[in-house]
Amino acid sequence: MSDISHDRLMQCAEIVGHTFNDLSLLRSALVHRSWHAEHGGDVTNERLEFLGDAVLGWVVADLAFHRLAQDPEGKLTDLRRSVVNMNALSDLARAKGIGEFLLLGRGEDAAGGRDKSSILADAFEAIIGAVYLDAGSDAAFAYVQAHLAASIEEAIPNLDKFDTKTRLQEYCARSGKQAPVYAVEGEGPDHERIFTARVLINQREWGTGVGRTKKAAEQLAASAAYDALVEHDNA
Questions:
Q1: Which of 78, 108, 122, 125 is catalytic?
Q2: Confidence band for 55, pLDDT divided at 50, 70 and 90
Q3: What's phi and psi for 197, nearest 5 deg?
Q4: Which residue in 121, 133, 170, 222 could disulfide with 90, CB within 3.0 to 4.6 Å?
Q5: Which residues pair with 103 in a beta bridge?
């Protein structure tokens, strides 16, 4: 993409879900450092990403604090981590089709940068930063809440299983097994995509999980695999 026109920016704003008073903020949120390296002039989206990350952390912390009013700090942290991570944010960006609007350098574009989770997650955080600067804290809060409320509700019943990937990996190491390998497939339209994860250990499938994000599916699969392995080893 040589650049992005006003019409394309308006189209992007529509799929982003915010009416920008200053479209240049949205454009800045789409500028990857590879574009800057080739074209110069533009600042990258990294400053907006920094701001958006802080706004995102604040909003999710607020939502977690009030949603889990009787739970200890550890549960609040687990909830925040479960919805504020590269996989979860890139899934949101991917579902909206943000990748097609990114300003990437030729090399990064050719290497599939429009679908790279790290680039998509960074761009989504940059967009949150742009919304904050464009319309203020209330609008940014509402924007994050609208996009993450469903993920928060889905994560809450599974908080006890949040760190099961680490627990499974440690168990495999202690018992002399190979490290778990996760195979994830998605199906359905982007806005309602469902992911199914399988856990393979020593070339054998030990557990599966289904979720609205890859992270959630992997965590549930790891939980099932851990239980199956422990039962098998103690039989």
A1: 125
A2: very high
A3: -115, 140
A4: 121
A5: 31
> What confidence tens digit (pLDDT) does each residue in 174-191 have?
889 999 999 999 988 877
Which pTM does this prediction carry?
0.72
Question: How far is the C-alpha of 131 from the C-alpha of 141, rounded, in Å?
Answer: 10
Is 42 an annotated catalytic residue? no
Residues linked to residue 194 through DSSP beta bridges, in sequence order: 187
Beta-carbon contacts of residue 36 (< 8 Å; ≥ 6 apart): 42, 43, 44
pLDDT digits (tens, 9 = 90+) for 122-176: 999 999 999 999 999 999 999 999 999 988 998 888 776 667 888 898 889 988 9
Contacts of 12 (CB under 8 A, 6+ apart): 4, 26, 30, 98, 101
Question: Is 46 part of the annotated catalytic residue set?
Answer: no
Domains and CATH numbers, the chain: 6-156 (1.10.1520.10), 164-233 (3.30.160.20)
Q: Which residue has the tokens 């019409």?
A: 7
List of long-range contacts for 202-207, beta carbons under 8 Å, 24+ apart: 202/177, 202/178, 206/180
SS3 label, residue 213: coil
Q: Which residue has the higher pLDDT, 34 or 234?
A: 34
pLDDT in the model for residue 8:
95
